């Protein structure tokens, strides 16, 4: 996203990070003034950033009760997973049809980084996984698709952080990525879509399992 | 729109080496309504600026239509970085299609401004044709390896201004694997010098975060004072750019301080041709104004030891100012500078004990009042946790906690014999401790020309200083002023003639013992020593003096150069006036070069390359059969782009001029320049 003002961009990045990592808990009330002070920023960019985040459904604005961090719940998880599943599948399918040599170089580089990252570094692995999904969306060469997926990913991220204490990074994901890169290289769009759907499905299954058990 | 009855107020701020100056100006009438001075905080320039914004008298903040700042931030970060890196952030420089053997053979790597540079296959040739395929996997593997150790990445490909394809492909791929900011060479310069472009890209990358923090801090300060107006930043050539633009192209702020001074001098004096001399606390800067414009050095600004491709004011800066340290040299001669210290008058004003000590010192016999007693060290601020690395640093800071101490006491307390053994370099650089000593500012206090601090302390110190060499205080003071103006005349001569002149041995030269004619001519013109030959240096332009010491120092300079000295009203804050007086300028350059057949023998047509503002966008390269068509297209597009960009940057009704230049080899450059006054409405 290209934002006009750099301070808005910084405030947006900082607040989004706090929300997605649950440092600002779901349902928590947001005090603009206090938030601006913690971030050491002025009020205007913080307000602008919160508007953008409200637009992404990470922040809820109510006329009477002010601002709060949007909640996460099971129905959300179901709705998110259903939509992401089909869009990620589409993304992988298009990538297999359209990926350029440069796109594949990026996917390869990410896969290698994933292989060399130790399994206990789950935050990093999650970050690489995210970039991997973004790279596939890039390779699909449809910017609206990439934008939609980015938003859905931002919402899903909080589920992952909720489940994190009892969720290891899925060991099968590394293999999945390898297979997926192969399928995209071979322009096998059916297989690419199938692997991707399975990969995303597994993620939600596991998160659901953990959250329901709680 | 503006209410006609209400004047347009603008706030100009200049961060110099010693002081941060602010002025509140009525834009149309050029009337200075208020001025404010605060000490520059080098560790964080924003603090000094916040002080100015908070301290300056503003009756109605809502009437302010623009805030503009000139900053030495970039210049400082580069100059203080030391030998092999920039004091900004750590940067990796990826060079595509550069020849490593050539770079090492001509020792060009030292000029890259970062020790982390890497070579990759790729790049284009003189006709924009792919020289070698781009090694993207190699680049990505390297990025993976280094991304945790650097804070930004710069990419420069061979002949990228002609064909930026490889830089753009690298950008897209790198952005896919890491979140670091990536700077591309072709977006900063259309010049073909590949080493300068790489240096510029690396410097820009290292300064990105520094300037972003700066802009955010200034905006925060503005908001606290309820100033809601556009923020502009002065470029190295004195024109203005929006803060957003500055945050993306921090290298363009190189030399912005001196450029602002020159603009301010012209603005206040309303003279279109002159030489501007800005005497600050740390340096004296010289710039030339011709036809109302600051002259610009086309080949690119040099900062510290780095040659860049950034266009900036043509200027000369010498380490001589009101706060230059006056010491005894080896030849028993008073030496002024290059080090900058806090004047004793100020230190004694802040710490009365220093005044009493100096009085006692002036009454001691000369052998007990050595000049090192005139150097004081003091605590500027509390060190942060973990900042004190050695026991000696801790002892020093502890000792200075109760106030400033003269150097011999410090050495004695620490049990060392020589100042070099104290190891305080790092603490001085980080502005945890400061140095104070005799300065021209103290002499100005003694002479009653500038009396804001403790005049008595300055007088006692000067007495002790003169006694040490049995010199008459009045005569020695005059000599200090003479030496200073001599240095400035010399700098003017070097600056305007473009020649160098080594100044060693004045007395020998005047006595006829030196055979060098240039030196003799210089000294004879200043001191009129020869019985029969009269020589003189005459400056055809008037001198405009800027900065508080200018009134005293420059009269002698103007006399020696047989010209007039003009001190416009408010000359002591003209630098800050200059920060708001510049025009908003945007320049767009398009390159036109031939499309040649593979064998390179036949011209098949002409390309026009259009640099993209967004690195993610695919670059545009349009093809034409005829040169005239290509040029006409480039002119039209250049005009459009410059106009659009100037409006976005806050120019009011910009005027566009289009110029055609040729690089030889059938390559052309269309330069469209849009210039306008800053738009003052909100």
Protein model, in words:
- The complex is a heterodimer of chains A (214) and B (682).
- Chain A is mainly α.
- Chain A has 2 domains: 6-69, Orthogonal Bundle (Arc Repressor Mutant, subunit A), CATH 1.10.10; 74-213, Four Helix Bundle (Hemerythrin (Met), subunit A) (Up-down Bundle), CATH 1.20.120.
- Chain A is built from 9 helices and 3 strands, in the order αβααββαααααα.
- Chain A has a 3-stranded antiparallel β-sheet.
- In chain A, a hairpin with a 3-residue loop joins strand 2 (59-62) and strand 3.
- In chain A, helix 4 packs across helix 7 (143-163) and helix 8 runs antiparallel to helix 9.
- The radius of gyration of chain A is 18 Å and the shape is globular.
- The two termini of chain A are 36 Å apart.
- The mean pLDDT of chain A is 87.
- With 682 residues, chain B is α/β, with parallel strands linked by helices.
- Chain B folds into 4 domains: 9-73 and 211-276 and 574-581, 2-Layer Sandwich (Nucleotidyltransferase, domain 5); 78-209, Rossmann fold, CATH 3.40.50; 324-475, no CATH class; 584-678, Translation Initiation Factor IF3 (2-Layer Sandwich).
- Helix content of chain B is 36%, strand content 25%.
- Chain B contains 21 helices and 31 strands.
- A 6-stranded mixed β-sheet of chain B has the order 3-2-1-4-9-10.
- In chain B, helix 1 (45-55) runs parallel beside helix 6, helix 2 (73-79) packs across helix 6 (194-224) and helix 8 (256-269) crosses helix 20.
- Chain B is globular and about 85 Å long.
- Classes of the chains: A mainly alpha (214), B alpha/beta (682).
Number of individual domains of chain B: 4
Beta-strand portion of chain B reads: 15-25%
Average pLDDT across residues of chain B?
87
Amount of beta strand of chain A: under 5%
Q: Regarding quaternary structure, how should these chains be classified?
A: heterodimer
Under the CATH scheme, which class of the largest domain in chain A? Mainly Alpha
Largest sheet: number of strands, sense, barrel closure of chain B:
6 strands, mixed
H and E string of chain A: HEHHEEHHHHHH
Q: Characterize the main sheet of chain A.
A: 3 strands, antiparallel
Number of domains of chain A: 2
The name of the CATH topology of the largest domain in chain A is Four Helix Bundle (Hemerythrin (Met), subunit A)
Q: What is the count of β-strands of chain B?
A: 31
Point out poorly predicted stretches of chain B.
82-86
Shape of chain A: globular
* Distance from first to last alpha carbon of chain A: 36 Å
């Amino acid at each position: 996203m290209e934002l006009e003002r750099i301070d808005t961009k910084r405030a947006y990045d900082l607040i989004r990070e706090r929300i997605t990592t649950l440092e600002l808990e779901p349902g928590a009330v947001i005090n603009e003034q206090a938030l601006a002070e913690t971030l050491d920023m002025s009020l205007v960019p913080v307000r602008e950033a919160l508007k953008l985040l409200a637009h992404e459904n990470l922040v809820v604005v109510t006329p009477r009760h002010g601002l709060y961090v949007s909640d996460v719940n099971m129905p959300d998880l179901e709705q998110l997973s259903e939509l992401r599943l089909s869009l990620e599948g589409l993304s992988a399918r298009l990538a297999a049809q359209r990926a350029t040599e440069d796109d594949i170089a990026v996917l390869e580089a990410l896969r290698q980084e994933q292989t060399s990252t130790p399994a206990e570094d789950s935050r990093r692995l999650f970050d690489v996984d995210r970039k991997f999904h973004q790279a596939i969306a890039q390779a699909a060469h449809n910017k609206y698709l990439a934008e939609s997926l980015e938003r859905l990913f931002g919402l899903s991220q909080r589920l992952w952080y909720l489940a994190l204490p009892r969720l290891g990074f899925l060991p099968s994901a590394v293999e999945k990525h390898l297979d997926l890169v192969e399928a995209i290289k071979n322009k096998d769009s059916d297989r690419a879509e199938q692997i991707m759907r399975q990969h995303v499905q597994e993620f939600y299954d596991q998160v659901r399992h953990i959250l329901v058990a709680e | 729109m503006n209410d006609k009855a209400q004047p347009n107020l603008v706030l100009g701020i200049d961060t110099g080496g010693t002081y941060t100056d602010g002025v509140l100006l009525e834009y149309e009438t050029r009337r200075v309504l208020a001025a404010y001075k605060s000490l520059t905080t080098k560790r964080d320039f924003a603090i000094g600026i916040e002080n100015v914004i908070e301290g300056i008298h503003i009756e109605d903040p809502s009437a302010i239509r623009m805030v503009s700042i000139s900053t030495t931030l970039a210049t400082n970060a580069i100059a203080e970085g030391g030998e092999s890196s920039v004091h900004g952030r750590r940067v990796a420089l990826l060079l595509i299609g550069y020849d490593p053997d050539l770079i090492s053979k001509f020792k060009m790597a030292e000029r890259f401004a970062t020790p982390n540079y890497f070579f990759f296959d790729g790049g284009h040739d003189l006709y924009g044709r792919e020289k070698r395929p781009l090694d993207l996997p190699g680049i990505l593997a390297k990025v993976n390896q280094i991304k945790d150790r650097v804070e930004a990445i710069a990419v420069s490909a061979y002949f990228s201004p002609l064909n930026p394809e490889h830089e753009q492909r690298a950008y897209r791929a790198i952005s896919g694997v890491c979140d670091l900011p990536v700077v591309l060479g072709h977006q900063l310069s259309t010049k073909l010098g590949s080493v300068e472009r790489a240096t510029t890209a690396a410097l820009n990358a290292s300064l990105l975060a520094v300037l972003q923090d700066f802009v955010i801090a200034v905006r925060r300060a503005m908001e606290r004072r309820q100033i809601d107006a556009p923020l502009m930043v002065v470029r190295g050539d004195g024109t203005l750019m929006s803060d957003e633009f500055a945050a993306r192209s921090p290298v363009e702020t190189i030399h912005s301080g001196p450029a602002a001074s020159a603009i301010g001098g012209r603005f206040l004096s309303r003279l279109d041709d002159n030489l501007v001399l800005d005497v600050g606390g740390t340096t004296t800067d010289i710039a030339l104004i011709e036809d109302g414009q600051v002259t610009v050095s086309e080949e690119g600004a040099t900062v510290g030891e780095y040659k860049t491709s950034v266009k900036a004011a043509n200027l000369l800066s010498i380490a001589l100012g009101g706060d230059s340290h006056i010491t005894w040299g080896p030849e028993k001669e008073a030496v002024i500078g290059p080090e900058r210290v806090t004047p004793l008058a100020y230190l004694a004003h802040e710490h009365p004990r220093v005044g009493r000590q100096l009085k006692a010192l002036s009454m001691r016999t000369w052998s007990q009042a050595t000049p090192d007693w005139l150097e004081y060290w003091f605590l500027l601020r509390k060190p942060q946790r973990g900042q004190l690395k050695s026991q000696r640093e801790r002892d020093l800071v502890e000792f200075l906690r109760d106030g400033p101490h003269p150097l011999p006491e410090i050495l004695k307390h620490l049990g060392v014999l020589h100042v070099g053994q104290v190891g305080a370099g790092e603490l001085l650089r980080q502005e945890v401790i400061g140095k104070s000593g005799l300065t021209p500012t103290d002499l100005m206090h003694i002479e009653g020309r500038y009396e804001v601090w403790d005049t008595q302390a300055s007088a006692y110190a000067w007495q002790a200083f003169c006694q040490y060499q049995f010199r008459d205080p009045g005569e020695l003071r005059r000599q200090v002023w003479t030496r200073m103006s001599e240095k400035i005349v010399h700098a003017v001569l070097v600056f305007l003639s473009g020649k160098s002149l080594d100044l060693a041995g004045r007395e020998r030269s005047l006595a006829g013992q030196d055979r060098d004619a240039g030196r003799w001519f210089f000294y004879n013109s200043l001191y009129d020593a020869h019985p029969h030959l009269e020589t003189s240096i005459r400056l055809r332009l008037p001198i405009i003096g800027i900065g508080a010491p200018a009134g005293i120092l420059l009269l002698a300079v103007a006399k020696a150069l047989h010209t007039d000295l003009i001190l416009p009203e408010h000359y002591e804050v003209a630098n800050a006036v200059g920060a708001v007086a510049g025009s908003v300028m945007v320049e767009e350059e398009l390159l036109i070069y031939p499309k040649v057949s593979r064998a390179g023998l036949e011209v098949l047509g002409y390309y026009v390359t259009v640099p993209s503002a967004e690195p993610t966008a695919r670059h545009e390269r349009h093809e034409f059969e005829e040169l005239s068509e290509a040029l006409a297209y480039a002119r039209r597009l250049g005009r459009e782009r410059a106009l659009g960009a100037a409006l976005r940057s806050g120019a009011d009704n910009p005027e566009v001029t289009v110029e055609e230049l040729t690089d030889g080899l059938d390559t052309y450059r269309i330069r469209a320049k849009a210039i306008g006054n800053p738009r003052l409405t909100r």
